[in-house]
Amino acid sequence: MARNDRFLKACRKEPVDCTPIWMMRQAGRYLKEYRDIRSKYSFIEMCKTPELVVEVTLQPVRRFELDAAIIFADILLPLEYMGIDFEFSKDDGPQIKNPVRTKKEVEKMRKFVIEEHMDYLLTSIKLVRKELDGKLPLIGFSGAPFTLASYIIEGGGSKNYIHTKTMMYKEPDTWHLLMEKLVDMIIDYLNAQIQAGAQAVQVFDSWVGCLCPSDYKEFILPHQKRLFEGLDKSVPNIHFAFGASHLLKLVKEAGGDVIGLDWRIDLDDAWKSLNFETAVQGNLDPAALYGSRDYIKRRVEDILKRAGNRNGHIFNLGHGILPTVPVENAEYLVNLVHELSKR
Ligand code: CP3
Q1: What confidence tens digit (pLDDT) does each residue in 28-74 have?
Q2: What is the pLDDT of residue 3?
Q3: pLDDT the model gives residue 98
Q4: Given strand 313-317, what is the order of strands in its sheet?
Q5: Rounded to the nearest whole angstrom, what is the distance from the C-alpha of residue 317 to the centroid of ligand 1?
Q6: What is the b/e burial string over 37-72, where b = at least 16 CB atoms within 10 angstroms of the residue's CB?
Q7: Closest ligand 1 atom to the C-alpha of 27?
Q8: Residues 5, 30, 34, 151: which is the catalytic one?
């Protein structure tokens, strides 16, 4: 592996030799080598064992010519230490056993102390950095306060976010208290990852797209701003709000050196609405990897054309890679992006 810093250069909107690419959820079940380890351990056990974290973090960057690694963890892990009891069920994703819905329950949530509670993550980051030996950058990450709150309040994934919105619209003081507690946690969590060696951090706001712009402004923006203001600025940060094309200007106002885009908006339209002031990351539909080579190539060409060789484009999927995609199509994508974007 040759030293490669085109991902970090693109985050800073500096010129690159070709467009960098990494894939959200690039460590995971679509890789046989991941499934082999996963057959012996639970997902949580894997997350909490630094040797396994190092192995699965490196699997995708060994297999493909990716331009960044992302630490293997989950956005829900820190919640355990705030008193949220959850498990990952086989088919339904995360299940929280004690959803938080009242002011009393929010007040009871404990303060998170990363060094005490999640030393395993910091150790994993240091070990991965050692293995990567400066050749590829490592990304750290966290969930955004809305997305974490939606899990805590609903008790799992949700379609209509009824309990979350009920708290927001009916008990705004309770909502704001919960957001404050989560933002305090996230700032410490990400800054500790940066201290341990993360060279960029991504904030995943996977479910905030269910809100209208005025709700985002009132219930999210002040908290999201405080989050980004609190981050260690020695490394770039990425702000990814999924399904949130209608909120892009507000997402930018909240903060982010790089704004993540899903596939529901054309990349040039999105970038233009950001006045080309930030870098952008995206935005291939993850399901495109089920298509023919010809289809994948057409989609990649289109995205690259819309990016127009401007400084500050990081190629990515518009959401996490799906567990059943043909792995050879992921490889095809990575090579194709580099080949077609050579400057
Ligand atoms: O990108 C990477 O490779 C790093 C690892 C990573 C995981 N989760 C591992 C994981 C990252 C960045 C995440 C973030 C995450 N986790 C998000 C935000 C990104 C997004 O997809 O919107 C969310 C919403 C979660 C919560 C979560 N974790 C869900 C809904 C699920 C179940 C659905 C699923 O994909 O199975 C998880 C489990 C999870 N997180 C797995 C992995 C590899 C699957 C665990 C397994 O092997 O069974």
Answers
A1: 999 999 999 999 999 999 999 999 999 999 999 999 999 999 999 99
A2: 82
A3: 96
A4: 69-70, 138-143, 200-205, 237-241, 258-260, 279-284, 313-317
A5: 14
A6: ebeeeeeeebbbebebbbbbbbbbbebbebbbbbbb
A7: 3
A8: 151
